[in-house]
Design goal:
alpha/beta; TIM Barrel; Oligo-1,6-glucosidase, domain 2; 6-stranded antiparallel beta sheet; 16 helices
């Protein structure tokens, strides 16, 4: 196939911006939209990504830092104005980058006008826009569903003496997507942003919009010790009924038609946050006729043990299950997940970069990972994330600390005094930052730049086939990427020690990238040395 059959969301690399922590432009210690605009040149020219995805910037009481939206069609003053957003879109497009925004379909904020109306009386026209239930006859909760963030998923509301459902915080009431008026209102929101020029949407907890019509109890995981899980019973259930109901597919088909109706001038895109690890079920969100989401986010690599067989197993099983014509994707980090350097160990960060950017499918890269940022250990009193405050150990602040731009006192993130930053800076920001790493040939940033540049010019990396290689040392993961006219070998060694691979059937090749710097030129594949945690991309001669 030739390039023109692939779209930007297939050939490109997506970069996730967490607006609160990317760049503060007005000195209040919190990142904002003008800040992102100021940093576009970094993303385009220094780093070399193709599209940005913005976590929520909508008006919000910030109970869940923007994932509790009180107005879907505006910008929170903390982040700027709609005019700032328009300028960001314009500047993004001027650089030939795409912009994807977060859409939060499962819940609003309890401060959203829709919920305020809904809760006001039993016969309010918007009553049914949310999920309200009376207690059972014996006075107990409507069912056994749990909040992902701890505690029951039902909150008593004394105004009308009923419970409302919240799959996350009680400040995030769940929307009733079975109500056609709600669906129409939500699709109007989508149109609003498409008209403003956005190229796509990331759908927050997408499959949660499908809930069992009878709200049946979830079964408990057989044999689970409830006492052990008493602080987080959510983890003790099989989530058969509180999310993933087939009704979601119906909504996604309509949603896709809406996106497609805007795609003639340029393709629009959607990716759903769908934590499902049964491949068949997961793949169903592409739609039977590829008529639902462009892709469900693939989190399988992110949760797999950092070990060559497990990682290969994820990739091979994805390749095996993908519906014909569906496009794969990979992600290793995001604003909900500990940093790569802390999860895999610093010695593996370079290998992780090489893996993510050479697999077949769209990579999504989380801000700061290109510097090898580590988790920041934040004392409980300074933590902000409600998840971690409710269920200690589950906090996500550690990966949401300010981006590290330079070695000045606030890392170039803000002009506010350091104690005013919304979250503390990492202790190592004077060494680990964009400015320092831009000048270091052996920095993690330099490696990301190199890999991103290679991906831009390599047909094999952009859309070539994936073919794993068997009979390699157990510490290695080796695969080919094959496009017409280009054959690449990717080889990764996960061990601490050197291994020697005999790949003589592949002949010889030229080194394109190594996680180590001291290597270049011709490589004889009957004797390929890989040092501890080294990964290479080699262009094969035949
Ligand atoms: C998603 C978001 C997370 C948020 C949750 C509730 O998992 O990524 O940050 O807290 O949904 O909206
Ligand atoms: Ca600000």
């Amino acid at each position: 196939m030739t390039k023109h059959t692939y779209h930007w969301w297939q050939t490109g690399v997506i970069y996730q911006v967490y607006p609160r922590s990317f760049q503060d432009s007005n000195g209040d210690g919190i990142g904002d939209l003008p800040g992102i605009t100021q940093r576009l040149d970094y993303l385009k020219d220094t780093l070399g990504i193709d599209a940005i995805w913005l976590s929520p910037f909508y008006p919000s009481p910030m109970a869940d830092f923007g994932y509790d939206v009180s107005d879907y069609c505006n910008v929170d003053p903390m982040f700027g104005t709609l005019a700032d957003f328009d300028l960001l879109v314009k500047e993004t497009h001027r650089r030939n980058l795409r912009i994807i925004i977060d859409f939060v379909p499962n819940h609003t904020s309890d401060q959203h006008a829709w919920f305020q109306e809904s809760r006001s009386s039993l016969d309010n026209p918007k009553r049914d826009w949310f999920v309200w239930r009376s207690p059972k006859a014996d006075g107990s909760l409507p069912n056994n569903w749990q909040s992902h963030f701890g505690g029951s998923a039902w909150e008593w509301d004394s105004v009308t003496s009923q419970y409302y459902l919240h799959s996350f915080l009680k400040e995030q009431p769940d929307i009733n997507w079975r109500n056609p008026m709600v669906k129409a209102a939500m699709f109007a929101v989508i149109r609003f942003w498409l008209e403003r020029g956005v190229d796509g949407f990331r759908l927050d907890v997408a499959h949660y919009i499908g809930k069992d019509i009878d709200l049946r109890d979830n079964p408990w995981i057989p044999g689970i010790n409830l006492e052990e899980h008493k602080d987080h019973l959510y983890m003790a259930q099989n989530h058969l009924y509180d999310k993933g109901d087939p009704y979601a597919h119906e909504v996604f088909r309509e949603f896709r038609q809406l996106l497609d109706s805007y795609s003639s001038e340029r393709p629009r895109y959607s990716v759903g946050e769908i934590h499902i690890f049964d491949w068949k079920h997961w793949a169903s969100y592409y739609g039977e006729n590829l008529d639902e989401l462009h892709m469900p986010f693939n989190f399988a690599l992110m949760v797999a043990p950092w070990q060559p067989q497990s990682l290969r197993q994820v990739v091979d099983s994805l390749e095996a299950v993908l519906p014909t014509g569906a496009w794969p994707n990979y992600v290793l980090g995001n604003h909900d997940t500990p940093r790569l350097a802390s999860r895999y160990g610093k010695e593996n960060v370079r290998l992780a970069a090489l893996l993510l950017l050479t697999l077949r499918g769209t990579p999504t890269l989380y801000q700061g990972e290109e510097l090898g940022m580590e988790n920041v250990d934040i004392p409980y009193e300074r933590q902000k994330d409600p998840y971690g405050l409710n269920v200690p150990g589950f906090g996500r602040d550690l990966c949401r600390t300010p981006m590290q731009w330079d070695a000045t006192p606030t890392a170039g993130f803000s002009s506010a005094p350091i104690e005013k930053l919304w979250l503390p800076l990492a202790g190592d920001y004077q060494q680990v930052n964009v400015q320092v790493q831009s000048n270091q040939a052996d920095s993690i940033l330099a490696l990301y730049r190199q890999l991103l540049a290679l991906r831009k010019t390599s047909t094999a990396l952009q859309w070539g086939d994936y073919q794993p290689i068997d009979n390699v040392p157990t510490s290695c993961y080796v695969f080919l990427r094959l496009a017409e006219g280009q054959k690449l070998l990717v080889a990764l060694n996960f061990a601490d020690q050197l291994v020697v691979l005999d790949l003589s059937t592949l002949g010889s090749g030229n080194l394109l990238v190594s996680t180590e710097l001291d290597r270049q030129g011709r490589i004889d594949l009957n004797h390929l040395n890989l040092r501890g945690h080294e990964g290479v991309v080699i262009s094969l001669s035949s």
